[in-house]
Amino acid sequence: MNIISWNVNGIRAIVKKDFFESIQNLNPDILCLQETKAQDDEVEKALSQLNSYYNHFNSAEKKGYSGTALLSKKKPITIINDMEVPEHDLEGRIQCAEYPEFYLVNVYVPNSGQQLERLQYRKKWDSDFLAYLKNLEKNKPVIVCGDFNVAHTSIDLKNDKANYNKTAGYTQIEIDGMDNFVNSGFVDSYRYLHPDEVAYTYWSYRFKARERNTGWRIDYFLVSSKLVDNIKSVNIFSDVYGSDHCPIGLEIEV
Q1: What is the CATH number of the domain that holds 56?
Q2: Is 212 helix (H, G, I), strand (E, B) or coil?
Q3: Catalytic residue among 53, 99, 108, 200
Q4: Is 41 a catalytic residue?
Q5: Structure confidence by residue, pLDDT tens digits, 159-182
Q6: What does the alpha-carbon distance between residue 170 and residue 165 come to, in Å, rounded to a whole number?
Q7: What is the mean pLDDT of residues 229-237?
């Protein structure tokens, strides 16, 4: 099974670029998109060319903000939005698709903000999201993918010392949050297969960051430890453009 995750930074904008050609080349069985920045009907219209997939959307109450979409060639048993924690469930950040062998969770984790004004909220969000995942895992293994908005270790961003505890995505609180996911049995699949590889999934639009490869690895596939031996490959498609993030892919035998 080939699963692709991509923060598209606005679905209506990216479909005007080479998005459909990129998806055709990547050929996912399941496609998880984050930051669609549109309401359900607008996302459905934008993605109408992908008519070989079952489509599911979760939009934020606030228009033009956040939002996720999950497209699957195989119809999920069920698909449920959000984690049923009211303070977290207004921004369209979670979709959970159940398949016979596993749960797939598509997530767009909140950004802590330029002035770190949402950092304490983010700490609560990470804790509640981990509890949500562990509850799912009681029934069957979990694959969770998306934009986690954190570089886990110094290898995962270009300028680690300059950003540490100053920039959203690389504070100790956020790093601790990712530590908690890993320590509870979720495996960072890319790092598992590529322990020393320097690779990024996000580059700011400013300062020619992508041209200079001044990036961050903040998009992940975390998998329940039970599934680790099923992983065939994990890829970062840094040559695919259209967003300030690039797609990532997991090939797994299930």
Answers
A1: 3.60.10.10
A2: helix
A3: 108
A4: no
A5: 999 999 999 999 999 999 999 999
A6: 6
A7: 98
